Amino acid sequence: MNILLVCKLADHTLRENVLQPLLSSKTVRHIYVLRDKKSDSFDGRVTYLCSEKQSKSKLRHISKIWSGVRAVSKYKIDAIIGVLNTPHGLIGRTISMLTHTPYVHMTIAGHREFWVDGSWMERLNLWAFGRGAAITVTGSQTKAYLVNKGIREDMIFILPNLPNEAFTKVTQNEHRHYDIVSFSRIDLNKNLILLIKALSRLKEKHQMKVAVAGDGDQLDAIKAAAQQYGVSEMIDFLGYVNGFDDKVKILSDSKIFISCSKGEGFPVSLLEAMNCGCVPVVSNVGDIVDVIDNGKNGYVFNDTDDDTEFTNYLDILLADNGRVAAMRLEAYKIKNEISVAHNGKIWDEVLSYIFQ
């Protein structure tokens, strides 16, 4: 089977989260990637279809449609996959309608992809992708959202995001410098003020060392809040951490991974942390709950406006090293549950479904 893949994505995300699982499917013969720029040729079964002239004009998306239409005929494309709604999902869906080729829509940021641009775009997205051949989603909450919006349940397949392969090779490390780590962009949605408030309530009871990795428009405000609540001395603000090896080092040196976000899809940072043996304490948003067995391999809290529930879970872990060690072993098991090979089997199911 020949696939036309329409996407943008960072090179490593494209390779590890999309191409490798597709290539591990038994039915995929070749993938033609319609994209603005080429990437490393790690497999001879992948061909990049890119314009020789790089342009930042939005008009380039129109030329992508016609390039895709030609590619369908030239390369005998059997199915089209579009990643993310705007613009590449809609580009892929347009190509499929013009060529009468089955279209699979791949979401990687949860149900917020459908509604984040407003109610009019939500209706367009639901209409366009709900009339394709299949939709992959990152978890059960996104699937439930689509079913509630009238999309047929049988055409929706759960396909979790994948961590970078550097995190799948981590060896267990029992001795950890940081008690708590946060790894995210620092903005209002990430809601790190909840962590600051929790630390202020716990500081008299526990000695804590905290790592906050990331930058963003709320970094100065969070630093000021740490001073105000008297917890700045226990926090190392690490700034933006770019390299995977550095991320692995920090996460492998931390006991508890936290996320206080008010909205997420299926954050890869959670999978990366669990692969490094961090016990997650995370807000109940997006498709996060699909990988957290509450009280066994992590904790999920519901209130992102009041720190009480979040603080209680941190208190439980900080007071019991034995519990942390046991839950760490459970968190490590995510390596076996979410993998390239597992996603390849899901792609077999998707492609079999659209050609049944």
Detailed description of the structure:
- The protein has 356 residues and is of the alpha/beta class.
- It has two domains: 2-162 and 339-354, Glycogen Phosphorylase B (Rossmann fold, 3-Layer(aba) Sandwich); 165-337, Rossmann fold (3-Layer(aba) Sandwich).
- Helices cover 41% and strands 17% of the residues.
- It is built from 14 helices and 13 strands.
- A seven-stranded parallel sheet has the order 3-2-1-4-5-6-7, sandwiched between helices. The protein has a six-stranded parallel sheet with strand order 10-9-8-11-12-13, sandwiched between helices.
- Helix 3 (85-99) links the parallel strand 4 and strand 5.
- Helix 2 (60-74) packs across helix 3 and helix 7 packs across helix 11 (308-318).
- The protein is elongated.
Shape: elongated
- Give the overall pLDDT as a whole number: 92
Distance between the termini: 14 Å
Number of helices: 14
Structural category is alpha/beta
Q: How many discrete domains?
A: 2
Instruction: Kindly report the CATH topology of the largest domain.
Output: Rossmann fold
CATH class of the largest domain: Alpha Beta
Q: What string gives the helices and strands in order? A: EHEEHEHEHHEHEEHEHEHEHEEHHHH
Give the beta-strand count.
13
Point out poorly predicted stretches.
none
Query: What share of the residues lie within helices?
Result: 40-55%
The major beta sheet can be summarized as:
7 strands, parallel
CA radius of gyration is 22 Å
**Which sequence of strands runs across the widest sheet?**
3-2-1-4-5-6-7
CATH superfamily of the largest domain: Glycogen Phosphorylase B
Query: How much of the residues is beta strand, in percent?
Result: 15-25%
**CATH architectural name of the largest domain:** 3-Layer(aba) Sandwich
